[in-house]
Design a protein that fits this description.
Layout lengths: L11 E6 L3 H14 L2 E7 L2 H11 L3 E5 L7 H11 L4 E5 L3 H13 L3 E4 L5 H19 L36 E6 L3 H10 L8 E6 L5 H10 L5 E4 L10 E4 L5 E4 L5 E4 L11 H12 L3 E5 L8 H9 L3 E5 L9 H8 L4 E3 L4 H14 L1
Helix pairs in contact: 1-5, 2-3, 3-4, 4-7, 8-9, 9-10
C-alpha cells in the first residue's frame, strides 16, 4: 500500500522530520509561505517519522539525515517497506552529508535539498529549492518494488578487494554522455553497474548535484564497475574505460582535442552542471560516435543537446516513462529528436553497448 495520489485540486500534504526545532519551524514556514502545501505533522526522529507517516499518510515527507534513535536512511528504508511515500532528504552540504544522502536515495528517497547555515541568503536559497523539490516529489513515480530501487544484479559489479587496472590511456573515439536529475543516483547505480567493461567507449555523467555530492557519487559508482569512475577535473582526457562525473557547480565541456574544460558560466535550465552544455560541445567533436543517454529527471535539460547529437549522426537513448521517477527530461529529449531508442532502466546499459558497437562499425 502507498500514499494516496496527489490531486491538483488540494494542497500537497507534507510531514516534516527533523530533530532541530529551528529546522522544523523553518521548513514549515517555507512551505506555508510558498502556497500549495499543507504541513500535516512534524516528527523529531526516524521512529517518530515512520509512526506519523503511517497515521497521517502524507503525500511527501521531508527527512533530516542525522537524528537520534533512528537516522534518516533507516527511516526511509522502513517507510518504503511499509508505506512507500516520496521522501525529500534535507542534508548538510558536506562530504559526510553527501555520502549519507546518496545512501538514502538508493534506499528509496526521490530527491534532496541542502540545509542552510543561519544566514538569510542560505535560507532564501532553501526556500527556492525546498518548495520545488517537494513539488517534484509529489508527482514522482516510486519503483514498484516497495518504492525502492533494486540493487545492482548480475551485472559487472566490482567485488570487494578486487584490484583492477586503470584505463590504458587509449583516447576514446566514442563518447557516451549520461544525463540525469531527480531519481538519477539510483538510476545511475543500475546503469553503471551493468555497463560492459569491454565496450570501446569513454563516458561522462552529468547529474544535477551540488559540490561534494558529485564527488561522493563518483566514489560510490567506482565500486560498482570494473571501469574507472572519478569526478572530472580540468584538462582530463576522455579515455576508453573511464567514466568522468561532472563536478557540482561547474559546466563540463569537451574541447576539440578531447579534453575536459570546466567553466562557471551562468546556469542553464537553472542548473550547473547542465546536460545541454556538455552535449553541445560533444556533438561536433564526436559526431556519429556520440551517444546521448537521458535518464529520469524534471524539466528539459538535455533535449537541445540530444537533437544536436542526432543531427551530427549520433544516437539518442532515453529511459521510458514506466521506470522513470519523473518522465520530464527523457520525454523532452524524445520529442526533440526524430529517432530515440526508448528502453526501460534495466535495458539502458545494453542499449549503450549496442549503440557504441554499431557506431564503431559505421
Amino acid at each position: 500500500m502507498s500514499a494516496a495520489p496527489v490531486s491538483e485540486s488540494r494542497p500537497i500534504r507534507v510531514l516534516v522530520v527533523d530533530d532541530s526545532p529551528f529546522m522544523r519551524h523553518t521548513i514549515r514556514r517555507i512551505l506555508t509561505s510558498a502556497g500549495g502545501f499543507e504541513v500535516v505533522g512534524t516528527a523529531v526522529d526516524g521512529v517518530d517519522a515512520v509512526r506519523q507517516a503511517l497515521a497521517l499518510r502524507p503525500d511527501v515527507v521531508t527527512m533530516d539525515v542525522e537524528m537520534p534513535r533512528m537516522d534518516g536512511v533507516q527511516a526511509v528504508r522502513e517507510l518504503m517497506a511499509s508505506l512507500p511515500t516520496p521522501v525529500v532528504m534535507v542534508s548538510t552540504l558536506t562530504r559526510r552529508g553527501a555520502e549519507v544522502t546518496l545512501q538514502a536515495l538508493e534506499a528509496g528517497a526521490v530527491d534532496y535539498v541542502t540545509k542552510p547555515s543561519s544566514d538569510s541568503q542560505d535560507l532564501y536559497a532553501l526556500s527556492e529549492s525546498l518548495a520545488a523539490a517537494v513539488r517534484r516529489a509529489a508527482v514522482a513515480r516510486l519503483n514498484r518494488r516497495n518504492g525502492r530501487t533494486p540493487p545492482p544484479s548480475a551485472g559487472h559489479t566490482r567485488q570487494a578487494g578486487t584490484m583492477l587496472p586503470p584505463p590504458d590511456g587509449t583516447p576514446a573515439t566514442t563518447l557516451v554522455v549520461i544525463g540525469s536529475s531527480t531519481g538519477g543516483p539510483p538510476a545511475l547505480t543500475e546503469v553503471v553497474s551493468h555497463l560492459n567493461p569491454e565496450t570501446p567507449a569513454g563516458y561522462i555523467i552529468v547529474q544535477h548535484m551540488p559540490p561534494h555530492f558529485t564527488a561522493a557519487l563518483a566514489q560510490r559508482l567506482d565500486g560498482l564497475t570494473p571501469l574507472s569512475v572519478r569526478e572530472a577535473a580540468e584538462g582530463d582526457a576522455v579515455l576508453e574505460r573511464r567514466i568522468l562525473v561532472a563536478p557540482g557547480d561547474y559546466h563540463l565541456r569537451v574541447s576539440a582535442d578531447r579534453k575536459v574544460r570546466l567553466e562557471q558560466s551562468p546556469p542553464r535550465h537553472g542548473v550547473r552542471p547542465s546536460v545541454d552544455v556538455t552535449l553541445e560541445s560533444v556533438a561536433p567533436v564526436f559526431g556519429r560516435h556520440a551517444v546521448a543517454v537521458i535518464l529520469t529527471g524534471m524539466g528539459r535539460d538535455g533535449a537541445t543537446g540530444a537533437r544536436l547529437v542526432e543531427d551530427a549522426g549520433g544516437v539518442v537513448i532515453v529511459q521510458d516513462e514506466r521506470t522513470s521517477v519523473i518522465y520530464g527530461m527523457p520525454k523532452a529529449a524524445k520529442e526533440s529528436v526524430q529517432r530515440a531508442v526508448e528502453v526501460p532502466l534495466h535495458a539502458v546499459a545494453q542499449a549503450i553497448d549496442t549503440a557504441v558497437r554499431v557506431g564503431v562499425r559505421r
